[in-house]
Design a protein that fits this description.
Elements: H1 3-19, H2 22-42, H3 45-78, H4 81-115, H5 122-151, E1 156-159, E2 162-165, H6 168-172, H7 175-206, H8 211-245, H9 247-253, E3 265-272, E4 277-284, H10 287-293, H11 303-314, H12 323-349, H13 354-357, H14 360-367, H15 372-387, E5 392-394, E6 398-399, H16 410-440
Antiparallel strand pairs: 1-2, 3-4, 5-6
Helix pairs in contact: 1-3, 1-16, 2-3, 2-5, 2-7, 3-4, 3-8, 3-16, 4-5, 5-7, 7-8, 7-14, 7-15, 8-9, 8-12, 12-15
Amino acid sequence: MDPLVLSRLQFAVTTVYHFFFVPLTLGLVILVAVMETLYVRSGNAQYKRMTQFWGKLFLINFAMGIVTGLVQEFQFGMNWSNFARFVGDIFGAVLAIETLLAFFLESTFLGIWFFGWEKLSKRVHLATIWLVVIGSQFSAFLILVANSFMQQPTAFVIRNGRAEMTDFLTLVMNEHVIYQYSHVFFSGLTTAAFFMLGISAYHLRKNWNDDFFRRSFQIGLYCALIASPMSVATGHAQGVHKLFTQPMKMAAAEALWETESPASFSLVSIIDEKNQRDVFSIRLPGMLSWLYFFKAEGEVPGIKELQQQYVKQYGAGNYVPPVNLTYWSFRLMVGAGFAMVGLAILGWLLPRTKKLARFLPLFLLILTPAIFLPYLANSTGWLVTEMGRQPWIVYGVLKTESGVSPIVTGEAVLISLVLFTLVYGALMVVDIYLLAKYARHAPEETKVGAY
């Protein structure tokens, strides 16, 4: 019944549910805009049908993202009032711009796009979907500005127990934002690519000669070939950056208990977190230094040394995040990422290699459940980002235990936690049902503007 534990669990549940929808929204809207661009430039009605089919699936996902995202704002005031008070001067400006400018731009022009078929000229209608793209990306960027302040605080001073912004431009140009946004951008495209590939593969298994889904498959494949390696590359760049800004997070992600130079990379470790040791471990000597410094030498600080360092710097306390959760979440994220890169390369090779072409039916069968790979990577990636930062809610400045509301009771949080989990679970079932229902329909049954 600890309000802190329950509030953290509640925020984790609602955030993971919400982020389940966000990457697909960010990526699929770009591909829908690309398809409509191809239609306007070529006049080929097939691209219009593709825009309408994938546009409807985008709208379903977008609606669910909005519903689940609304709760996030209320939790700041209800469960995390001390945190909201501390960062209000900074978050207030950023989130106000996100709501009043970015989200309104996105939602307004999405409505015009939805109802504007056959009412607007082709080029004006095309402009509306690209404005939705701009609005959605701007919205994501501003939210990540706020999150990056929690990861790497900058452009602030503390007055009267509150963080006050000193320079808006410096806040927006926080170097952590660049790494984080680029990774989220390519992760969104990867999610959309595998979403298209999986649904297209489902239809192509029934009719290989279906031109509609062959074209959709090609667009998804080209996107996956570019986005999935870039998602891995930007994720790695973000990890290298965090080695210097949040070394404890990266030490936990590798279960690196002792400082090493050169540092070994853990392929798999069975961790005794209580006694801070490995029960069993397979490590590649020097590989972690290669990954971080691109050379065979380079010191990577370990958990025990960092704990001692933080005690001297911040005072007594436990500064070690949940190692098992961080370690395995990191490996699931990386494993899913490389699996998607491999599938994208296979998708390009199979039709072009006679010996491998016979495996194409099996490959198409695999691609449909592979839709869930980016969701696994996205969810575990956020667990690493947020849980690996513990015990800080604002890194190095405010601890999580200091951010919880002082008057909230464990009973109240437990009731709302149960209700949110049940409601969000129902919404997830509805979303998957609707996406599956309309994804199985033939394109002729799906018309935007006449829906």
